[in-house]
Amino acid sequence: MTRDVEQRGLYYEELELDTRYLHRPGRTVTEADNVLFTTLTMNTQALHLDAAWSAGQPFGQRLVNSMFTLSTLVGSSVAQLTQGTIVANLGFGEVAFPHPLHHGDTLYSETVVTGKRLSSSRPGQGVVTLAHTGRNQDGTVVATATRSVLVWCRDAHR
């Protein structure tokens, strides 16, 4: 063996403004995913659980729980962007679900770095603003969210 390579996210210095990071593979969402997430989170919304009732609603079928969509959208970015380099998730803003996600749809995620600055109160760390976008297999945007994260600078991380 010649060397070890550890998979990690990117340090503050490596995150590039106005760069779009494509997170692959996509995630095909199943009925089981939706029902499990919905019941685990105690969300008894019939729109996620009751196929017969949902058939009579405007979309004609059950919808994937939007919190599952958001969680998967953000989660798919971790390996590429923040695995082991994040200090804290600071918050979300501008979350939107412009089109429903259905059972059998595949969620493809991408992230653009829209802002970054060194922390004024935490030396060796920086605040990065990420714009996440989720699209279904047809390219239709199903979710968007902005997120602020605190990440390590390379030389400060132990």
TrEMBL record:
Which Pfam families does this one have?
A: MaoC_dehydratas
What are the MaoC-like domain coordinates in residue numbering? 17-133
Q: Which Gene3D superfamilies match?
A: Hotdog Thioesterase
* InterPro entries (alphabetical): HotDog_dom_sf, MaoC-like_dom, MCH/BMMD
Q: Which residues form a coiled coil?
A: none
Q: Which domain of life is it from?
A: Bacteria
Q: Which family does it belong to?
A: Belongs to the enoyl-CoA hydratase/isomerase family.
> Which named protein is this?
MaoC family dehydratase
Which source organism? Cellulomonas fimi
- Print the organism lineage: Bacteria, Bacillati, Actinomycetota, Actinomycetes, Micrococcales
